[in-house]
Amino acid sequence: MSERVIVLNGDNNCSLKPDSGKIKQYLSTVLSLIENGLKNGDRITLQIHSVTKKFTSTTSKFSFPSLKPEVNHKFAVYFRVLRLIHNQISLNESVSKRQIYYMDVSLFKKQSVVDQCIDNLANSIGVSIEHLNVHASQKGLVYANLAFDSFKASRESGCSLIPYVKTSAQKNDIKVLFNNKIGETPRSIIILEKDAILSALVNKEKESTSKQFAESILVTGRGFPDRQTKQFVSLICQTFYNTPVFGYFDADIYGFMIAMEYKNKPMDQVRGPCCPTMQIKGGKLSPHIKGENERLDMLPITDRDINLTLSQLSNFGNNKLEKQFTEMQRSLFLCVKRELRIEDINCW
C-alpha cells in the first residue's frame, strides 16, 4: 500500500490571503487528493498545525486506514468538516460551528470535536475561521439600545444575543441610542460574569424609576466568554475608548480566570486582550470579612479550587494585578469564596 501525505499549509501551497476564491480552490485540491487516494487504495496521512490554549502551534499527523479506531474516527471528522466548509464557501453562505455539528451528530459526537477541528484547519491553512465562512455560535448577551449593521438591540425588548462581529469590523460601525439621539457616548460599559445577574439588573431597572443603567451598555459572556463576545466587547471598547469599563465577577478563582479572559488574555495570535482597560470591581471578599459570625454569604472552597488558584496565581505572577492577587490569597488563607450579588453592582 502506497502512502500519500497531504500537508495542510496554506502559506506554503498557495497565497491564501482573505480571498474566498483561492481558499475554495485550495480546499478543492485537498479534497481531490484525499478522494483520489482513497479510490486508489492509498494510505492517506494528514499533517495539520494544531492550536494550543496559549496560541502556539504544534504539528501533528494521523493516517487512514489505521489499526486504531480513534485515529480512523479523527480522519473521518477532518475529511467531513473539510467537505462541509467547502460546500459553505461554494454557496457563499456563513454557518456557525454549532450548525456544522448538527450536520453530522452521529460522526462528531461532541461539539468540542468540531470546534477544535475547525480551529486547527484554519490555523493550518493560515486564515481565520471567518474566511472559511464559519463563525462561533451566539452565546453572550447585551442590554442596551444598539445598532450594528442589520442588528438592533432595544432595552424595551430586554437582553439580546450578541451579534456576529467580523474581525474586519471597524470602530464607529456600532451606534448607541440614548434619549432618541443616535451617536451618543455611553456613560459606562459594564461586563458581568453571569446572565443571572444581568437578568436581575434588568428586572430591577424595569421596576424602578431611577433607570440607573439607562445610559450604559451591559454585557455578559455567560461565564467564560466565547470568541464572538470578546470581539463584540473589543469593538465597543474601541468605539467608545473614553468610556470607563467595569467588570463584575465572583470572588473565586473562576471569577478571576473569567476576568483575565477580558483583561489579560490575547484574543488570538495577532490581537491583544479585548478590554485591557477594564476595572475589576464587585464580588470581593474584603468588605464582608469582619468576624466569624459575619461570613454568612461566604462559601467554602474545595481542594480543586485550591489547586487551581495556586496554579493560576503562578501563571499570572508577573502581571500588575495586585488587588486581584490579594483577593485570591485571602480566599486561600480563609478557605472561602463569595458569589457576586446584585448589591455589588455600583459603577458610579
UniProtKB/TrEMBL annotation:
What's the cofactor? Mg(2+)
GO cellular component, as recorded: nuclear chromosome
Q: Which GO terms describe its molecular function?
A: ATP binding; DNA binding; DNA topoisomerase type II (double strand cut, ATP-hydrolyzing) activity; metal ion binding
| Name of this protein | DNA topoisomerase (ATP-hydrolyzing)
Q: What's its EC?
A: 5.6.2.2
Pfam annotation, one family: TOP6A-Spo11_Toprim
Recorded hits in SUPFAM superfamilies, A to Z, give:
DNA topoisomerase IV, alpha subunit
Residue ranges annotated for the Topoisomerase 6 subunit A/Spo11 TOPRIM domain, each copy included:
189-342
Q: What family is this protein classified in?
A: Belongs to the TOP6A family.
Q: What is the lineage of its organism?
A: Eukaryota, Fungi, Dikarya, Ascomycota, Saccharomycotina
Q: Which reaction does it catalyse?
A: ATP-dependent breakage, passage and rejoining of double-stranded DNA
EC class, as a word, reads isomerase
